[in-house]
Design brief:
The complex is a heterodimer. Helix content of chain A is 31%, strand content 17%. By secondary structure, chain A is α/β, with parallel strands linked by helices. Chain A starts with 8 loop residues before the first strand and ends in a 7-residue tail after the last helix. The chains are: A alpha/beta, B alpha/beta. Chains A and B meet through helix 4, helix 6, helix 7 and helix 8 of A and strand 1, helix 2, helix 3, helix 5 and strand 8 of B. The structure holds iron/sulfur cluster (SF4).
Amino acid sequence: MDALIPVTRVAGRPIPLRGNDIDTDRIIPARFMKAITFDGLGALAFYDERYRADGSLKGHVMDDPRYSAKGDRIAVVNKNFGCGSSREHAPQALLRWGIKALIGETFADIFYGNCIANGMPIATADAATIEKLLAAIERDPKQELTLDVETRTATYGGETYRVEIPDGVRKQLVDGTWDATRVLLSAAAEVKATAQSLPYVQGF
Amino acid sequence: MAKSLFDKVWQAHAVRELPSGQTQLFIGLHLVHEVTSPQAFQMLREDNLAVPFQDRTVATVDHIIPTDTEVRPFSDEQAEGMMSAIERNCREFGIQLLDRASGSQGIVHVIGPELGLTQPGMTIACGDSHTSTHGAFGAIAFGIGTSQVRDVLASQCLAIVKPKLRRVEVNGVLPHGVYAKDVVLHIIRMLGVQGGVGFAYEFAGSVFDRMTMEERMTVCNMSIEGGARCGYVNPDQTTFEYLRGRRFAPQGEAFERAVAWWRGMASEPGATYDDVVQLDGSSLSPVVTWGINPGQAIGVGERIPSADDVADDEAQTVRDAIDYMGWKPGQAIAGTRIDVAFIGSCTNGRISDLREAAKVAALGKVKPNVKALVVPGSQDVARQAEAEGLHEVFRAAGFEWRLPGCSMCLAMNPDKLIGDQVCASSSNRNFKGRQGSPSGRTLLMSPAMVAAAALEGAVTDVREILK
Ligand code: SF4
């Protein structure tokens, strides 16, 4: 397995994705999930929100020239982002498009877990803070947004915002233990003992 | 102190606490399907990992398979690639694959229960959000992403934070023509699609006590649409009788010992909950969704809301939904013309769903301009329905009778909406583009309501037809 990769700080241009309840079907439509790898998903992120049937652009924020810089990005979102299907294709598509971290009001549970499992930090803040940050970005989109996982702060255009990252998640990111497989495999004997204590595993 | 089922199951399966604050939780049953697993198996290969608990892992194929042909290779090359990948992966890692040749193939959340794989007191995981379905048996069942599928394959464990627990009590007597689907759509409407985030739901009260296992599955299935991490109903005599004699359920004396253990896992009176919500089932009517998330639902006699009727931060979602669906605020939902009727999915593709829909189908003919599909949830469901002659009832009414699979619930196979067609659907999601057309429109409702809509060519109160 790869070495531990700590994620302490992410910096990149911002991409504001406004709206509540943006579901994973919207982030990546199911018809693009038929490949057996995650490769190539980046170009398909938010496909139906971005393209008309004839392939022309609808004018989604991801195609707005003000946000068209290449390189790492941080998305800023509202409530219940990533609800619906458990598909990890959604964070994978965002990641491959360049979104390396997200800041928002709230996130759906499975989506949240999928992001952390891929070393993508998620920070939350109350509605007023998010609105302030979104407004600052939309006023002047060309600054660099940083998310500091260690200090739990986001900085944009000289302004610093307090954000929330639960202690355990912060520790996973900072220690580089966000990829759980290695951790889970290190307790093989205890796992066996738990299995043996369960009547149904033993066939009653 | 009195304990909930949730606490007992959690405690019995907790391997250890992790430094991250998560619990390493043993998973008693891992269900695998073709769409969310290939990348996980590839990760195992790259890291040289095996599957240590092969006999606690079962795979099937449901999402991509065509429902109009069994011929291989599938005409869709990508679907065929996915199918061959799961066949190869299951062979290589020693996992039982319930494919069409096995006779037990079907939607993963339909076959787990009907084969008796799903049992009370278990932890269950599957790379699919509707894994919550299995909670109907008093199991704690989590939908997971592909990285976690890899984790469970490699270690039979999940690293997971324990959710809070909310008891959702529904009492009263459901009126005639009101089904489990209406109950859960009503719950989501009342608590919101975000209301359950961070919670497990315990469904309790006389309405759930009286429900059959299949009805409980419909409710638990959609817990996730209310944002909950999982949902369950405490196991009782109904649960045990359902399981008795099923293929993977304990047999003989072992079954009696199992019942004793299962009974002991149920929540005790006086158990503590982080939250309790009470709803009245007597006042419900058939529910139809009008919007682009399952919480945007109204009774069939109600009217489409306007953005002015809701809190400020929901107004944009309502405007977006009205715009996408093409409504005029204040319009009645009854009478809305439909183009497609879909009966199936892990929410409502079981034998009791088909029986209820067939009762309605027997009373008329599908309108000529409506394409109507019935897709049984599994090969077992299909065999049972055919034995009862339901397929003939549907065909005589003008429905197509298809092979088991997910079909038009998410349209990863050839069954798709075209353009901005309106579909009356017994599935679970009405998201933009969900049924395969980027501008397709979905109205969620019970299978009986879908059948009624097919006969009328428009959204109809099924109680009018059943009178
Ligand atoms: S029927 Fe629909 S919701 Fe259920 S598993 Fe299949 S695609 Fe998912």
